[in-house]
């Protein structure tokens, strides 16, 4: 097919297509003149053609222009695939971005038997593949042995095993999982998946924690089918799979004819036979097709895809979260309120309520609105929950410091869903209470690889010397699997970044810096490797390198809240408090919900601007009232500013939520003592000392304070009178007084 020449502007450049007899070229015109790139390979099919051009070191790069066969026009690739990749934001970038390298991101789903022959030392590729496009091998495995058997078997001879994967023998779940790697946003764990194998042994799945989904789960872009499929009640019942509706090549079996609704047979026989009574739309109309209401289309650039959750229309979600709905996809002249009114008139059951509930919880968690934390935890704990929503909420809880989440996450490790168990293991990272440690160690032997490696990463910060021999061996085996999962994609920056994080947790700091440096070389525009490398450098005591890494990150993204926050901490350590203040204000400008930055700004300002400092403390407290450190800091400075009654009120709230918060207890006892309420202070301390959940260190500190009160009153404590003593602990004397927030 001869493609017409085209020209289109993308960013600061103009691109023009030149077609010759044997070759095609793309001409990039910019400030430095024209550069020609050869079209070496073509990807795509009947609807769209993409083009690849060779760059340095064997990289095959997706060109910024693609051709829409149906519209007979060229279009901007960057604007259309901006949401196709995990590590991209909402803004298109230069087409030479490594994420658009075919070798790294595309070949898994677009060619057969592809080998990059990547050399990590020279960072070069020698690309080889058997066939372009999706062929038999994608679904049935390699056909080499299959072909040999047929060649070697005499005509009419019996063949018990034809050496290909037969989908007839697969379960509905296996069939759907066979399609999932190319129809979902995934993180590969291996390079060896074959249909029939378990998906979560080879992949992790992006869920609603990602902004590529609306809070209710509707997709903002392409390539999200499998996540929505897992929210599908028909699929959840175990009776539906992809090939029920699709041919092996992906074509829809039922077309858009009068038989289109037969796709929902035999399960929904009554509704299919009397479709217009159920749909309230006339026969022959699009609204009378099951997919019209239950699988509405979503546009992503030049592409359209149908929503595979198969849920009923929810215009109320459009009103609440701006997600698209099936009603207004057809009735474009009406608004969501109109659609919602009609839905509620025709359906007396409020089926939208659970959709709105789930979406509301996801939306709150994304915004770090932990006022709804009890509802979020209740939803995760409910065995009837939607697993994908539960996974999303668990992952978003990483942003929450509230201790109430730990028991819920620990229980989620017992979920029947491997995706939920894996998310729970990841969410428990850093908490090594005896109960959680035991459960995470058990998870290192889970039947699914995804769970095992997430548990291994969660435990990477736990001292190996604290483990018994059996537990040590369990963790080492799972940790090796984790490292192997990272090494399966040696040319992916994120693999080296994750390896760096693992090594950082192990305190293998020089090796972590090497991994972060490799990640930055593979994708120089990414912030996370630079940020975490600065942390590793600071732990090594190399503050010059730490500062340089943060400066590089700020050059890439000057408005990054997290980078400005870390730069503020570094400046404060250097004694440059004006610059620390500036960076904290920049962090809060970028992320007004960053309670930690507000709290640190409070501590900084309280030295000479107490009133303004307290305002920022109050801001941090309001943003996250459940976090004891923000409440304690506010109470500390309220007391110092001459407002002890407000400090008492706040401290009582803190202790009411956490009866073992030693800092709050000590501060409150000191305020009681200053007010002449020594007996109340003694009762507070004595009551807490009976709490079996109190750590030995905090028990000792509170005991010392109680002794001081007794000595001041000229009497021994009850524990002294009964003969109970605590051993001297070197270095603890200075901790008898309430410490200033740091």
General description of the model:
With 742 residues, the protein is of the alpha+beta class. Among the domains are: 7-133, no CATH class; 170-331, no CATH class; 576-646, Alpha Horseshoe (Serine Threonine Protein Phosphatase 5, Tetratricopeptide repeat), CATH 1.25.40.10; 659-742, no CATH class. 47% of the residues lie in helices and 9% in strands. The protein is built from 35 helices and 15 strands. The strands form five sheets. Strands 5, 6, 7, 8 and 9 form a five-stranded antiparallel beta sheet that branches. It has a four-stranded antiparallel beta sheet with strand order 1-2-3-4, with no helix packed on it. Strands 10-11 form a two-stranded antiparallel sheet. A hairpin with a 4-residue loop joins strand 2 (13-19) and strand 3. Helix 16 runs parallel beside helix 18 and helix 25 (543-556) runs antiparallel to helix 26. The radius of gyration is 30 Å and the shape is globular.
Extended strand count: 15
Flag low-confidence runs.
Answer: 86-90, 717-737
Shape: globular
From the alpha carbons, calculate the radius of gyration and give it in angstroms.
30 Å
Rounded average pLDDT? 87
Query: What is the CA-CA span between the terminal residues?
Result: 69 Å
Largest sheet: 5 strands, antiparallel
The quaternary structure here is single chain
How many DSSP helices? 35
- Secondary-structure-derived class: alpha+beta
Helix content: 40-55%
Strand content: 5-15%
